Recover the amino acids of this structure.
């Protein structure tokens, strides 16, 4: 076991390449909250084949697919965005990355096309850990940590985020990024 790594809101959790858990295999999780008793984040690289306007009644037509945020409370919708104070009550997670905010104002801004698909990501469910659970997973090497970057969330192709984050960490991590998803290709 290795020593636990220091993490905080704004950290990325990158699944180690051999993680078998189907929810988190090759995932990158943006931590939005990390407290002593719990942690919460969203998988930023698992896009679903459904639009947010198909999931929420009375939501403006919005041509953007939803992401699978994690296995907890999959009957809920969450969002992270890059519009900052334009959306009151949002919380800054990292430079250029904000979580939540006024839902009514969000609908208004989308309807007026002041928030576009490149500005926001919607998530079904979230990833959550109880007290000590995430630290234990870090000690066992289930996750590689990194710093959040708004480009990973809003600009990168979701299918390439896992590999890109590892490559940008450099050194040994860029080698890990080359491990094929299917071990039969190795």
């Amino acid at each position: 076991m290795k020593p636990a790594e220091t993490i905080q809101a704004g950290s990325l959790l990158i699944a180690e390449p051999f993680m078998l858990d189907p929810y988190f295999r090759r995932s990158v999780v943006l931590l939005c909250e990390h407290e002593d008793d719990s942690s919460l984040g969203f998988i930023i690289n698992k896009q679903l084949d459904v639009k947010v306007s198909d999931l929420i009644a009375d939501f403006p037509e919005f041509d953007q697919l939803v992401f699978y945020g994690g296995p907890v409370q999959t009957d809920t919708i969450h969002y992270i965005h890059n519009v900052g104070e334009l959306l009151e009550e949002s919380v800054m997670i990292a430079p250029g990355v904000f979580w939540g905010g006024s839902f009514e104002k969000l609908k208004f801004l989308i309807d007026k096309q002041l928030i576009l698909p490149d500005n926001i990501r919607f998530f079904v469910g979230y990833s959550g850990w109880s007290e000590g659970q995430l630290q234990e997973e870090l000690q066992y090497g289930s996750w590689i940590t990194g710093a959040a970057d708004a480009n990973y969330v809003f600009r990168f192709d979701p299918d390439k985020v896992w590999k890109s984050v590892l490559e940008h960490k450099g050194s040994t991590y860029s080698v890990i990024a080359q491990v094929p998803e299917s071990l039969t290709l190795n």
